[in-house]
Amino acid sequence: MKKLAAGNWKMNGRTAQLTEAMALAAAHPSPTVDVLLCPPATLLAAMAQAMVGTAVALGGQDCHAAEKGAHTGDIAAAMLVDAGASHVILGHSERRADHGESSADVAAKVRAAWAAGLTAIVCLGETEAQRDAGETLAVIGAQLAGSLPEGASAENTVIAYEPVWAIGTGRTPTPEQIAEVHAFLRQNAPDAGIRLLYGGSVNPGNAAAIFALPNVDGALVGGASLKAADFGQIITALEAA
Ligand SMILES: O=C[C@H](O)COP(=O)(O)O
Questions:
Q1: Which residues constitute the domain of residue 224?
Q2: 162 given a catalytic annotation
Q3: Which family is this protein grouped under (predicted)?
Q4: Residue 27 buriedness (CB in 10 A; 0-12 / 13-18 / 19+)
Q5: What is the tens place of the pLDDT at every residue in 52-99?
Q6: Which of 88, 126, 202, 233 to mutate to test the pocket of ligand 1 (most atoms within 8 A of CB)?
Q7: Can you state the percent helix, strand and coil of the chain, rounding each to 5?
Q8: 200 lines ligand 1 (CB under 6 A)
Q9: How many domains is the chain partitioned into structurally?
Q10: Given the residues 92, 101, 126, 182, the one annotated as active site
Q11: Is 167 in the pocket of ligand 1 (CB under 6 A)?
């Protein structure tokens, strides 16, 4: 299975930062791994223009469950496609927390993404309190069952394991903890070919060790994806894994 390095710019980036995407594409002209950038929606169309002729694919960071309509401020999956996206991140813990998204909400968005032809990157992860209480696999199992509708396959879905306590904190789980959750996901995902990404404080210094773990098929990278040099090193580590 081809590995995937996905960068989530979150609510960061202006037109001036398109140079980072262009530098990344120039440094990885024909990567042996899939490279995906998910800029804020405001930059998607411009980044798509800048990435023409490169191997870098683009994704959105959320979409609405409805095809269109009176939903001020929201973005439909087909609009992401129209702007140049092939993927969309759904159910990120920041959206589950900031916008109260339940797994049922995420599943509805996944269906909308598939209907528009997008690959859904579905995020799952436990809080620190849940891990301390020994609930990690129960939480991940419930999110997996609730967030993935019938029909999830390697072609239309990627799963990202992102422990909430590891996001943007500089803290990462132990190799054993990552391997345990990824083994659980491999066993319980509806299609064994679905790519499993790890996300949470991945950086050039820890990427190789994370990518060496079984059932880790790539990464969903936040902060370190904003700089082409850093994200490039992570891609290189994935190529070498
Ligand atoms: O979507 C990306 C993740 O939330 C990881 O973010 P981070 O690499 O800044 O910890």
A1: 4-240
A2: yes
A3: Belongs to the triosephosphate isomerase family.
A4: middle
A5: 999 999 999 999 999 999 999 999 999 999 999 999 999 999 999 999
A6: 202
A7: 45, 15, 40
A8: yes
A9: 1
A10: 92
A11: yes
